[in-house]
Amino acid sequence: MILATTSNIEGRNIKEYRGIIFGEAVVGIDFVRDFGASITNFFGGRSKEYEEEIANARADAVNEMMNRAKKIGANAIIGIKVDVESIAMSNDRSSMIIVTATGTAVVLE
Fold it and tell me: Are 16 and 106 in contact (CB under 8 A)?
């Protein structure tokens, strides 16, 4: 599976467009990780807790998108975009990270 953020693949012709596809991953951040991240935020620096969760969620979302593309007979995905959002849950001290990957599934010659 060829993945690209561009609208075409250099040296390859798009034979068929199969449609827009998505991959999603929703990951909960527990109180301990959230607390560690808030301390990092207070003192400055990078939050490894969130970075690891985002990296894992991003990989999951892209893999899900690739699997969906394969199911519809695509051999490439173009125009890929990945969005990351965080939602704080008001009823407890946890947060959710939502990663969405989108792209256009295509068949290359």
Answer: yes
Cα dist. 55→12, 70, 89, 104, 108 in Å?
A: 30, 23, 21, 22, 29
* Cβ–Cβ under 8 Å, residues 3 and 62: yes
- Here the tokens at position 23 are 């991959």
Q: Give per-residue pLDDT as tens, 24-80.
A: 999 876 544 555 455 455 455 566 667 788 899 999 999 999 999 999 999 999 999
Q: Minimum mean pLDDT among 1-5, 88-92, 101-105: which range?
A: 88-92
DSSP strand E in the chain: where?
2-3, 14-29, 76-88, 95-108
> E strand or H helix at 68, and its extent?
helix 48-71
Which residue bears the tokens 């109180």?
A: 31
